[in-house]
Amino acid sequence: MQELFDFSAYALQVRKISRLLMAYAVDAAGVSGGVSLLSIMAEKDLARFRPSEEESRVVCGPGCGACCVLNVAVLFPEAVAIIRFLQRRLSPDKITALQARLEELQKKTRWLDDEERIFLREPCAFLDHLGHCMIHAARPLLCRSITSTDAQTCRDAITMVALQEAPNVEMDLFQKKLIDTVYCEFGWALECLGLDHRPMRLSSAVLAILEDPDLVALFLSGEKVPVH
């Protein structure tokens, strides 16, 4: 199925849909809704076109979190959607506690490159005390693209990076390519609309919006968003 799937045509379709969704967004709700629709579309397309045998081999599940020590890039609208998701589900006190965790994570990881981030083994701020993802339904596109067919190999790969002996992790390559295509074309659509299309670190972008919700209006005005 992967060999027959036309990724070039799919990319053009995603770019067109992404552009339409963001062109009509005038506030945080519109931005969040557009991202949610795009994510739903990607998940439905994945379920429709992915070979069934590939899906059955994926072992990722709640509480694993082995790969949740990586730097994750998001586009600004994805961070907006995550904030909206959290605000509908968490009390103000829990939002405040989450913001404190994000600030602490930012202090520890802000200047780390991808390899250094893995060495640190500092978990994502969105993992709860059971290791479950608090934002799984609204998780970033690039989180959706990563899978593993063997949980232990995945954990070993993270652990052994420092030794330069990390094993190769088998993943669903069709899922990775499809979701990566959605991410890239979403970025292209933002650029076409004159909106900030730079990749940003997940924790930095969400923390920035929590600290200054007016950044959403700045983004929609076409200005670059000061996320560090």
Report on the architecture of this protein:
This protein has helices at 7-23, 28-49, 52-57, 76-89, 92-109, 114-120, 141-145, 151-159, 173-192, 202-211, 215-220, and strands spanning 73-74, 200-201. The radius of gyration is 18 Å and the shape is globular. Helix 1 (7-23) packs antiparallel against helix 2 (28-49) and helix 5 (92-109) packs across helix 10 (202-211). The chain has 228 residues and is mostly helical. The N and C termini lie far apart (40 Å). It has a two-stranded antiparallel ribbon with strand order 1-2.
Give the helices and strands as they follow along the chain.
Answer: HHHEHHHHHHEHH
The structural class is mainly alpha
Indicate the overall shape: globular
Mean pLDDT: 92
The helix content, as a percent range, equals 55-70%
Major β-sheet profile: 2 strands, antiparallel
Contiguous uncertain segments of 5+ residues: none
Distance between the termini: 40 Å
Number of strands: 2
Radius of gyration: 18 Å
Q: What strand order characterises the main sheet?
A: 1-2
Provide a count of the helices: 11
**In percent terms, what proportion of residues is strand?**
under 5%
